[in-house]
Structures are given as structure tokens and as C-alpha cells.
Write a structure and sequence with these properties.
Blueprint: H1 2-18, E1 22-29, E2 35-36, E3 41-47, E4 53-63, E5 70-78, E6 84-87, E7 90-93, E8 105-107, E9 110-122, E10 127-135, E11 141-142, E12 145-155
Antiparallel strand pairs: 1-12, 2-11, 3-10, 4-9, 4-12, 5-6, 5-7, 5-10, 8-9
Length: about 160
Amino acid sequence: MYIKRIILFMMVLFAFACQNDTLVDQTVSLSEHGWLQKNKIVIDFQVTDTSKAYDVRVALRQSIEYPYYNLYFVPKVVNPEGKVIKRAFAEAFLYDAKTGKPKGSGLGDMYSHQYTIFKGLHFTRLGKHQVSLEQYMRTDTLKGIISAGASIIETTANDGQN
């Protein structure tokens, strides 16, 4: 387990070092019990330039203990006044529905997934914003979900403006 954490830390460090146009890139470790439905993941970030467009990506990490082939979740972006400026109902496919083989990149019994949720998002206000993630499964506790997070990366795309 110690080696897996070192490798995960090095991967996060490498990803952070390679992305200089990133507003935030944060992952939250969940309890050993999994992702509780009542526990929202909230990530704060600062917008300092409203002229740029950004892609919002969600990162999920799961173990083979996760019992379903998919995961429903709701990502939201909230402005400094607390108003939701972007919301979606998203589905992540963690396993192949026919073969049962895990998708994503893996090491041992853990797999990482990354999904672009919002493309070309423009912020109209400066200041502290938030990304929140809520699991939206019919189970109160999702065993096998190890971490979840988000990154907001500058893009050159102008489509998908809000």
C-alpha cells in the first residue's frame, strides 16, 4: 500500500508540473468506507481572468471492490455569489458492461479515470469559485471509490460558452 501511495503522489506531482494553465487540480481522498451520498466534494479555486475559456475535468479513482459498472454523479460550478453557473448529470463508465473488465488506467487493483465534463467554460466574475461533486447512485455508500476530484484547465476552444 505504501508503494501505491508513492506512485500516486508522483503521478499527481508530474501532472501538476506539466500543466501551467491550470486554475485548480485537486483530488480528495475518501474514507475507507467509500463515497457517502451525503458527502459532497467541494474544491475552491480563484478566477483571475474572465477573458479565457476553461475545460472542467473530473478525476475518479476506484478499486476493484466497486460493485457497479458505472457511477452517476452531479458536477456543479458555483460563482462567488453562490449561484450555480454550470450543472450536469454525468455518468462515468468504470467497467465494460459486457466483459466486466475495468476501464481507465490501472496499477494493481486500482484504476483512475478522467472525464471532461464542461468544455470552453467562460467565467463572468473574478474571485473565489467552487466545483462540487455529488455521487448520485441509489446506494448511500459507494464502496470502492477511493478518491474524486476536479481540474480546471485553460483551453483555446471557444465553443460551449455559458
